Amino acid sequence: MNFNFSGAVLSQAIASGIMLGGLFALISIGLTLIWGVMKIINFAQGEFLMVGLYLAYFLVAWGHIDPYITILVTVPFMFFFGIGIFRATISPILKDPVMNQIMLTLGVSLILQNLALMLFSANVQSVHTRYATWNIHIGPVVISAPQLIALFGSVICTLAVWYFLKTTDSGRAIRASAQNPTAATLMGIDVPRTYLLAFGLGSATLGLAGSLMIPFYYTQPTVGVFLGLIMFIVVVLGGMGNLVGCFVGGLVIGLAETVGAAVFPGSLARVFTFSIFIIFLLFRPQGVLSKRQT
Amino acid sequence: MAVEEINAAGGIKSMGGAKLTLVEADSQGKPDVGISEITRLCQQDNVTAILGTYQSSVALPATQTAERFQTPMLITTAVADAITQKGYKYIFRICDLASWYARDQITFCKAMESMGGPKVTTVALLHEDTDFGQSTSAGQLKYAAEQGIKVVANVAYAASSADLTTQVSKVKAANPDVVLTTTYLNDSILIAQEAKTLGMTQLFFDAAGGTVDPQFIKTLGATAENWLTEIEFSTDSSQLAIDLNAAYKAKYGDNMTGNGMDGYQGVYVLAKALEDAGTTDKAKLRDAIANVKMVAGTDRVVIPTKEITFTSDGEITSAPLYVVQIQKGVFQTLFPLPAPGKLIVP
Amino acid sequence: MSLKMPYIRILVVGALICLLPLVLDTFYMHIAVLVLIWAFLACAWNIIGGYAGQHSLGNGLYMGIGAYTVAYLVNRFALTPWVGLLVAIALSAAAAAFIGWIVFRYALKGAYFALVTIALTEAAVYVVSNIPALGGAGGMQMEYRGNSLAYMQFAGQSGYFYMGVLMVVFILLLTQWYKSKRFFYQLIAVRENEDAAEALGVDTVKAKIKANVMSGVLCAVGGVFYAQYFLYVGPRSVFGEVVSVQILIYAIVGGLGTTWGPVVGAVLLVPLSEIARGQLGNSLPGSQLLLSGVVMVLTMLFMPFGIIGAVARLRQRWQHRSATPLVDSQGGEAS
Question: Is the pLDDT of residue B54 over 70?
């Protein structure tokens, strides 16, 4: 065991933690939106990301499209993919007990994961792009450009979704349905349609995530297992439905992963992340930023 | 492929040209599933012998089951040392041990100076921490101590990590002469990228982990250059290996790997033992495998060794490893000496 | 219907099952043992997940505690697994009581409870993987000492099979007995409406902790049996989310909060997935888990109360020929 981490290691860990945190925030926006709006925890969200990553991978590796241009395809595709899944499986069980919803989405995640295994094999797939080696030096730390772009993407995506919810009619309808579906219905809002829209949107953000991640990440049928768990942690930390909280939660967990790795040996760093999660669940289940509800 | 070749050549002659049949099973990497599948093979399909399995965590309980069913089992890819240290009679291993990879890494580090490389007095270990990384790094620690090489950092990480920059910068801070890694594919890619990002100039030497996957070079391009790794199969070993690789490539589209070679060799060892035993009686077959002797030149030996025999533990007596360096996108053999390649120091 | 009827039914079915070894060969006996292991674990989970309505997705934690305790004591001190069993019961009871106390004191419910239990069982995987004395990530293998009841090991499958039958019959009788007790009424009251239960004077926190301990201890017992049967424990094979979900799939598909549901689920699904893997495992990797996923989705869409619930509903419809909807899956057999 070795605990002697120097200042250089720690500053690099913090820089990487912020990058990683931006990424974690980006992949969690969809979950917090879906959870916040229709109170459904989508356990298949990690597998949606896996689909987004595979799509981006195939577009780049086979279609030879620049990864950042694939956004034009991945985002709409994932939007309709989400809508399809919602129509087929989630909308019939919206009013069922929580356990049934959990089981259903777990079932969907098993199906997606193993379909990917059958179609694409268990092999790790990644692409070689020119962006991979672009670096930015800031003082003693180095940041890779694709990761920085993903961080920017995360900020922009958070702001865009926030702006959409605040200012557009559809956005207001989504917020109204989230607060009180019955009242929203009485006010003439088509609640099922807003749910559909919110779910599609939540899924589309993972299309964006797929495109932004593929230059420096990889894909594999099980890639969503760990990242899906991260999404839950981030969303709980941020408070469900809270976009700014989601971003803060992402940063906290990103830093916990990297600074934890600097301090703790091996995968024990993972236990540190889980501990933060459990402590938050116990003491602040409403999230970092929200006030305690009565 | 080996099964087809043997059958095409007339099957097992001592048994009236009996043909080999392959029954496959998949453990999904889960120990309990592995046990279920061994039970199915032994009891349902009544197989004569078993070849396999990939992960050591599956192999350990699986070998115990095979032993209980008294069915000979040839381990072709699981490297954990413990597998053949249980005193089982029906278990034989044809592939290398985790500690052999570590041993050869350290040996090579010692020899590096004579090959125009740096004088290696310190190494850092960077390894994933499932049983693969844990057992290999234990071997690296042991052999480094024996050879008087100082381990200046020993960094473990979870293979599913999304970012390894912190771990790599820990290794960088320790400033070793060489970095010894034990990886799976995704983490080896992350490490190579991040080491480059952090401007590390040391040689990285992987214990036949993710780096032997063709994807490693394909994904990283120039970033993969100069990485060292170990392979079990090299076309530099013999004409037979060159022919075999060509046939394999024609059939499956990829170069043959060490795993492929061990599986291929396993079938031939089994065929030879069946030929010697002249029966599918499992106890007699077991004795035949224990006493098998295949000589390069006369028998089909593709493992780069002169002859294949097993120790009383069921371990193959010798299966050398090649140390290779990625040069211009291909593996260049550097070791054992004399070797065609030259070490490149960045 | 006599009050004793459900008990007699359990004993008769148990006795009939004991005849199976006469007709099954080794491989099918192996599947039968797997069915019993998972049925037992699912029944154990059913107490906290089904009756108390607290959706634990982390019962692998207790199964792992049981399996690891016995493996460690057998390997390290050469103790008989029977002593290990007692230690496992004590440890899992302590863990379940402590976790229950913290979690329920802070009134974590529904999805949040589910997430905490996942986090705990996943954290356990990483903790155990980093303890060399417990075999690290490679797990621990136990030695086969030959046919001996003292070592809870049997040469063939039938020894394990009869032990499994005894265990499942025991847990069914236990569940059935508790059903007529105050404790289970309290649990069901907590599940249906916690505030109302509280208002009626039920100490809901205590009831939930008790259910968690009962469920945890029984899962640990299942873990001990699992370890003895496979003679191997690994971090991911007894701890972790995957195992935890597998435990509850059978209960949910069979029928949540019913005596027989978990058993029915295991009897149908375990052989199905074993056969799927045997037949399709190589040509279509993942087909077994894909099938599990499809079964889960279809069950939730078309039989939200599981097979038992669906059968009860059909039976009721057939008897009354009216459209009275069945509200509760317990309707058929609770009394």
Answer: no
